[in-house]
Amino acid sequence: MEQAETVGDLELSLGYVVKQVHAALRTAMDEVLRPLELTVPRYACLELLGQHPGLSNSELARHAFVTRQSMNLLLRRLQERGLPARPDQAPRGRALPTELTEDGQATLRKASIAVRAVEKQLFSPLSEEQQHRLREDLAARVDSSIAI
Amino acid sequence: MEQAETVGDLELSLGYVVKQVHAALRTAMDEVLRPLELTVPRYACLELLGQHPGLSNSELARHAFVTRQSMNLLLRRLQERGLPARPDQAPRGRALPTELTEDGQATLRKASIAVRAVEKQLFSPLSEEQQHRLREDLAARVDSSIAI
DNA sequence: CAGTATATGTCAGAATGCTGACATGGAGCA
DNA sequence: TGCTCCATGTCAGCATTCTGACATATACTG
């Protein structure tokens, strides 16, 4: 009976390693986003809007992995800065389709470049092929039902 | 020039995929830990103490990826429940070496088994070999300097 | 020895995120 | 049509975590 039932050595735990990488990524992203007065969730919101204009608050929340209440507050703060814009009335149902303003797109572009550099640097120890394989393996276990 | 400078399609971003897996893991862990009145950071604290008795508050914080202020509060709450114990005075310097009580060990055992099951289930779509490779690839880019 | 640098524990305040709750708009069904 | 169910936006309260600050203990250095 080799298979342990407890977590065992943390360094051998896939969950812990994922957490390590996630923490490293988040710290590095926070650092480069600070000059733009963005946090990771704020950046995520902009990036999602950039790729999928018209997303509602609830949809943004799901894809950014926060509750819709948190996203609501976050979105309002960004709106005060004039980065995204929402109509006053819902064109249908209650969902308010959100889009980036010119300023929002400009800010997103800067942020996206910075984040891309961080990712590239963080995963640079891995070869192109390893990175591809890593993404495949990770995606393999993500519920693809979350796809937009 | 194929190499984009911005993040590009999120689904193709390693960072986003890591975040997806991390979120899924965290949600699943929170769920199974709730009956034990534990959160992920609280569990992490106990697991670290189980594997490395005598860690100080600051060391726990670093390995659990929170600030030492947060860990301090968290640790005190756990102490009120009698799970870990710290001496009143530091045997050397200011660091207070923390250890699990009997209750703490018992709680940790239950939690660890539950978390192990979650990890196992979450990564079950991947073969044993793929999991091994995944861990290797991820660990390859974690600063091993964080090792205990 | 005195002065400096580093690490630790801790306090205080602000920001962030979550849970619970409620009202509203649409879809499905009797 | 009327009823139920679900998704959305939003308000309120609570918990958690962070940043900034300060005191203390040790190590290092001139």
TrEMBL record, chains A, B:
<feature type="domain" description="HTH marR-type">
    <location>
        <begin position="11"/>
        <end position="144"/>
    </location>
</feature>
<dbReference type="GO" id="GO:0006950">
    <property type="term" value="P:response to stress"/>
</dbReference>
<dbReference type="GO" id="GO:0003700">
    <property type="term" value="F:DNA-binding transcription factor activity"/>
</dbReference>
<dbReference type="InterPro" id="IPR036388">
    <property type="entry name" value="WH-like_DNA-bd_sf"/>
</dbReference>
<protein>
    <submittedName>
        <fullName>MarR family transcriptional regulator</fullName>
    </submittedName>
</protein>
<dbReference type="InterPro" id="IPR039422">
    <property type="entry name" value="MarR/SlyA-like"/>
</dbReference>
<dbReference type="InterPro" id="IPR000835">
    <property type="entry name" value="HTH_MarR-typ"/>
</dbReference>
<dbReference type="InterPro" id="IPR036390">
    <property type="entry name" value="WH_DNA-bd_sf"/>
</dbReference>
<dbReference type="Pfam" id="PF01047">
    <property type="entry name" value="MarR"/>
</dbReference>
